[in-house]
Amino acid sequence: MNGSPALSDHILINFSDIEETMERISCIDIGTNTALLLIADLEPESGTILPVFHKQTIVRLGKNVDAEKVIDSDALKRLMNSMADYLRISKEHGAETIIAAGTSALRDAENRQEVLEMVADKTGIIIQCISGQEEAELTFFGAIAGMGNIPNPFTVIDIGGGSTEISMGSTQAITESVSLDIGSVRLTERFFSTLPPSLQEFEAAKANINKIFTSSILPFFSARKNVYGVAGTLTTIAQFTMGLKHFDPIKVHNFPLSYNNVHAFLEKLKMSSLEDIISLGIPDGRADVITMGTLILHQFMRLLGIEEIRVSIQGLRFGLAQKELQRL
Predict the structure, then answer these.
(1) Of 252, 228, 229, which Cα lies nearest the Cα of 242?
(2) pLDDT tens digit string along 40-97?
(3) Contact 104, 187 (CB under 8 A)
(4) Nearest-5° Cα angle at 280, 276 to 281
(5) Distance between CA atoms of 183 and 159, rounded to whole angstroms?
(6) d(Cα 290, Cα 266) in Å, to the nearest integer?
(7) Phi then psi for 214, rounded to 5 degrees?
(8) Which residues pair with 43 in a beta bridge?
(9) By CB atoms within 10 Å of each CB, which of 198, 223, 232, 276 scores lowest?
(10) Angle 290-304/199-214 helices, nearest 10 degrees?
(11) Dist CA 177 CA 126 (whole Å)
């Protein structure tokens, strides 16, 4: 994804007389597994976001956070290196503002404040640890930013490393939103001791996911035909389904992923070792948690009877950009 082409084909831009009003911004989404960077130009008069540069880095900030409740020194080092890199890239691209948001791993970590202070001291980047509800709202609007013909109501699901956010509403407002402590990293560490998991481990994980979903997803039934999904689990499954050897954001964005696609991929993964999964083209750093991420998505679609989900490569960082655009 590093330096991937801008997704300007789906965002309508009027380039006449906008250079003076355009502001370049860096938005950073610091998740449990990955840190995502978006550099974009914001044009207040037309209300448009023009992506300039994308990058993702596997930081695994949430490694063992579910059990230990602290971000360890190795994870902190990976985060610091990533933020230093993103700071350098932001300066090279002339970004005037850097906005960074931390999610589930930072929310859960008892040494959160220490981590935030160290990153600010070493890099100057101020990370705001946002709540699950804030994450859901920003992701909801970020997922469909720049898209046309959005049906109402619609639902957005964001399967992260530490949590899963589900929101429903229209392009104007959210009507239902929930943040659940089920994520690909958290549940892999909690339930799987090996890959492939044993049948007992797999069934225990599925039962836990079902229990949490069934107590929370009923309000989203009315929008089950118009669902968008963001984050690495969705984009990875879409890439595999399309037979792409390398991630192509333009092809993956808005790809219709069917329940049958997800079911077939899960059936393959549940019998696959880590080496098998990597051989499929799943990148290191995601390969060990993609089985759980796919199980979460599969159960979400099965329980709500969702036949198809649209994949969005956007999400929280686009929501941060949109919020800043509204402020200008």
Answers:
(1) 252
(2) 999 988 888 999 999 999 999 999 999 999 999 999 999 999 999 999 999 999 998 9
(3) no
(4) 125
(5) 6
(6) 9
(7) -65, -20
(8) 48
(9) 198
(10) 50
(11) 27
Q: Which residue in this structure is represented by tokens 């230093």?
A: 84
DSSP for 32-55 reads: SSEEEEEEEEEETTTTEEEEEEEE
**Percentages of the chain per state (helix, strand, coil), in multiples of 5:** 45, 20, 35
- Tell whether the model's pLDDT for residue 265 goes beyond 70: yes
Residues in the chain, overall count: 328
Q: Please answer whether residues 281 and 222 qualify as being in contact, where contact means their C-beta atoms are separated by less than 8 angstroms.
A: no
Work out the number of other CB atoms within 10 angstroms of the CB of residue 151: 10
What whole-number distance in Å separates Cα of residue 237 and Cα of residue 187? 18
- Rounded to whole angstroms, the maximal C-alpha distance in the chain is 62
- Residue 131 three-state SS: coil
Across residues 13-22, what is the average pLDDT?
50
Q: In the chain, what are the domains?
A: 8-133 (3.30.420.40), 148-311 (3.30.420.150)
